[in-house]
Amino acid sequence: MRFGAHMSIAGGVENAVLRGHQVGCDAIAMFTKNNNQWKAKPLTQDDADRFNAALIETNIRPVVAHTSYLINLASPDALLWKKSIAAMEEELKRCELLGIPYLVLHPGSHMGKGVERGVARVADAFNRIHVKLPSLRVLTLLEHTAGQGTNLGHTFEELAQMRALIAERQRIGVCVDACHLFAAGYDLRKPDTYADVFKRFDDLIGIAHLKAWHLNDAKMPLGSRVDRHEHIGKGKLGRAAFRNIVNDPRWRDLPGVLETEKGPEMKEDVLNLRVLRGLIEK
Description:
There is one protein chain. The protein has one domain: TIM Barrel (Alpha-Beta Barrel). Helices cover 40% and strands 15% of the residues. The protein has nine helices and ten strands. It has helices at residues 14-23, 45-58, 78-98, 115-132, 156-165, 178-183, 191-204, 238-246, 267-278; strands spanning 2-6, 27-30, 63-66, 102-105, 139-143, 172-177, 210-214, 217-218, 229-230, 255-258. It has an eight-stranded parallel barrel with strand order 1-2-3-4-5-6-7-10. It has a two-stranded antiparallel sheet with strand order 8-9.
């Protein structure tokens, strides 16, 4: 795997790359704008040029962007749904300008209207987006979720249903998070249960569509459906689960990025990356 961490874009998008290089990342995750605001300052070609120059200088690849947390493509509210579609289109265009191959999205929340309606709402949104933006190279990755509240996507079945209803499903991949999988009830700790999880994934979605990992340990127990990240080896998953992940040849060259808490000096990222690399069997 190409290990990395989520990096801040403070001061310019290229700084996410430089910060990643500083702590020893092979890949990085980032937002392309403030993740808690609808609007953002437009990106320029100069921004893109500085960003790509930093990638060439550091050999960091790939970059995995993440959408704003405000977007809810499953929303039953017409105004929020349309606003979310417009925001998603803008996020895709920002990634396209920067040359970022993957954009991760939480599928959204059905807000009490039921899974079937929520899944159909997400698919309808993507069908509209894809018609409007026919030539983008960016792949949207639906993130598997922990299953809190009415959030969609905590089962492989729900993700498969979304993809099945999207006309251009080749533009939709999946990002899995170790913490979310565990919280949703998928046990990664023993080799046999780990193998069962990804046989199920392959049967329902297809291993080829898994394009990125979020490598986070879990503070809460198996099946809790509570999303609380912990440092690698310090949580309920433990090092055994991550040993299974990092030595799986199916994830060779895929980005595996941390989303764990850290201070301004990012020492926690350095330590977590060291732990992950130390689990690789020579």
